[in-house]
Amino acid sequence: MVHNAYDSFQLLTNCPARIDAVESHNSKLFAGCYDGSLRIYSPQSPSSSEEEELRQDSYLLETTVTGFSKKPIVAMKVLASRELLLSLSESIAFHKLPNLETVAVITKAKGANAYSWDDRRGFLCFSRQKRVCVFKHDGGGGFVEVRDYGVPDTVKSISWCGENICLGIRKEYVILNTANGTLSEGRGTISLNSGAREMAAILDTALLQALLHTGQSGAAVELLKGVNYCDVKICEEILMKSKSYSALLELFKSNSMHHEALKLLNQLSEESKSNQSQTEKKQIFSPELIIEYLKPLCRTDPMLVLEYSMLVLESCPTQTIDLFLSGNISADLVNSYLKQHAPNMQGRYLELMMAMNETAVSGNLQNEMVQIYLSEVLDLHAALSAQQKWDDKDHPPERKKLLSALENISGYNPQTLLKRLPRDALYEERAVILGKMNQHELALSIYVHKLHAPDLALAYCDRIYESVSFLPSGKPSSNIYLTLLQIYLNPKKSAKDFAKRIVALGSFESSDTTKMMESVLSSKVKGGRSKKIVAIEGAEDLLRAGLSSSTDSGRSDVDAEEPMEEGNSTVMISEVLDLLSQRWERINGAQALKLLPRETKLQNLLPFLAPLLRNSSEAHRNYSVIKSLRQSENLQVKEELYKHRKGVVQVTSDSMCSLCNKKIGASVFAVYPNGKTLVHFVCFKDSQGMKAVSKTSHGRRR
């Protein structure tokens, strides 16, 4: 009697494109086609409840996702526990079910021909040419590379086999050991029940017992460190009863029972902490021993290292992070693991990474660290605001840390951070972020009008000025000071202009921005007296000649030609005068005067104009001196040239050539620099040629 292994049913017909991959999700059928489209079919007869399995019914086309892939879809798999659809085409892609939004595309899988998914651990392995790559799902929308292995030939099939990988290469199957990357053929070598192996286990187990009974625990440890065949189950029981923990650790280690060894180390370390009287145990089994045990495992099993390093990360943060660095474990992998299993230590890890090896911290990790700092400050702001204790002028440790990171780290995304800031707080942080976006006018407006801190505004200008002056191709620019001067002269400048610029940056919605900027710009001006500008008589004509030669002539970020609004405008006169007097050498005098109203008193500008004019006069005087010195030097050179040209040589009928000892006669001649030695010009040329040949021959002989 013939038996069929499967019952066959025809679910669909007349698909317009060749189907290369099929997968099901609940009662729906996914067909991956040769043209790169994904066709979704559902049962012809409707069902009152949500079906969980395919039905023995005809299926009709429900949806066609054109352009799902650029190339033919080779294989698909539904990851039901994670509600994802995995597909293999030109690379490996993950889509969220049921709406098929793209979650992740593993670009390194471009050209992959086979894959396997471990749903329990969230591990993906795939083969590409002569490489096998392993990636880990971080629980969200990302995948982190774990390891990359080389294999001798192209992989035809691949499948997870426990924690190892089974590969179909050529005409055989091999096992890839993910711990050390070695390949082995499941064929067995020596049976575990063979007589020789059994006898060796009996002898080594008996020897271990004898050493322990005779008090030779050190020798027992040495036995277990070498190649041995001790029965693990029996020896573990013996060593636990005798409390020979060092020997037990070696037993686990020699049998690659790393999980058991690390659990024991952690247990002994915790007992040492709780029992202060056992000084010996506390000294031997410290948390540092876990780190020492993990060091050789960094290259072979990084995931095991990450799992058990969590036990000591909080008590030994520096040593643990040094373990990650020395073991060359990917910083992105460590950060992803901490984010999922120890989020409270993620910021600490990134801090120590920055302190120990800043070049190893990518821009993404720097951005994540700043985001963590901001989250801490936002939590603090929410807690204190609920108690009505928040003061934006206070700088608790969390804010100091955030401000320092915002100023000194360059790898974060300022626009993303700007969107997270509250509308009515953290103005100093907002100013720093705007500065990173080169929005200097907005940053200075916050320093001046909301923080009421002219000293911070001046320090900000100094940083920008000095950073530009150190650029290889740039020269110091006074533009930033002119921007600050414009803000002091126009404290009531329209909030609408600022709101438009903030909206363009994506910081707030338009209505929120207008309220925020109106609040900023309508704040009462503090520090110094506010009054209308009065009387500057003839200052522009007085300074028109010579001022621009002593300072940079670059234009301001704002239009320097635009006059200040007069009439009802109120200026921060004290801050204007202080700025001009303190940074006169960095401000373009001519442009600064164009920004000031015509009524400004010349007397108030003396602290600015006096050193500026003095500097201009000194520069002019120095230029005149240099010009005179150059003219004098030029005259001296001309005089020396004339003196040498005046030389006279007398050639008589008796004058002889110093080289050939013949008379000069009417031949062309040459005179040596001493003014006395005469030679035929032909003899001089021949002598020069002979010298050159002589030098060449001498060099060849050497």
TrEMBL record:
<dbReference type="InterPro" id="IPR032914">
    <property type="entry name" value="Vam6/VPS39/TRAP1"/>
</dbReference>
<dbReference type="Pfam" id="PF10366">
    <property type="entry name" value="Vps39_1"/>
</dbReference>
<dbReference type="GO" id="GO:0006886">
    <property type="term" value="P:intracellular protein transport"/>
</dbReference>
<dbReference type="InterPro" id="IPR001180">
    <property type="entry name" value="CNH_dom"/>
</dbReference>
<dbReference type="InterPro" id="IPR000547">
    <property type="entry name" value="Clathrin_H-chain/VPS_repeat"/>
</dbReference>
<dbReference type="InterPro" id="IPR036322">
    <property type="entry name" value="WD40_repeat_dom_sf"/>
</dbReference>
<dbReference type="InterPro" id="IPR019453">
    <property type="entry name" value="VPS39/TGFA1_Znf"/>
</dbReference>
<feature type="region of interest" description="Disordered">
    <location>
        <begin position="547"/>
        <end position="566"/>
    </location>
</feature>
<dbReference type="GO" id="GO:0005737">
    <property type="term" value="C:cytoplasm"/>
</dbReference>
<keyword id="KW-0653">Protein transport</keyword>
<dbReference type="Pfam" id="PF00780">
    <property type="entry name" value="CNH"/>
</dbReference>
<protein>
    <recommendedName>
        <fullName>CNH domain-containing protein</fullName>
    </recommendedName>
</protein>
<keyword id="KW-0813">Transport</keyword>
<keyword id="KW-0963">Cytoplasm</keyword>
<dbReference type="InterPro" id="IPR019452">
    <property type="entry name" value="VPS39/TGF_beta_rcpt-assoc_1"/>
</dbReference>
<dbReference type="Pfam" id="PF10367">
    <property type="entry name" value="zf-Vps39_C"/>
</dbReference>
<feature type="repeat" description="CHCR">
    <location>
        <begin position="308"/>
        <end position="497"/>
    </location>
</feature>
<feature type="domain" description="CNH">
    <location>
        <begin position="16"/>
        <end position="336"/>
    </location>
</feature>
<dbReference type="GO" id="GO:0034058">
    <property type="term" value="P:endosomal vesicle fusion"/>
</dbReference>
<dbReference type="GO" id="GO:0006914">
    <property type="term" value="P:autophagy"/>
</dbReference>
<dbReference type="GO" id="GO:0016020">
    <property type="term" value="C:membrane"/>
</dbReference>
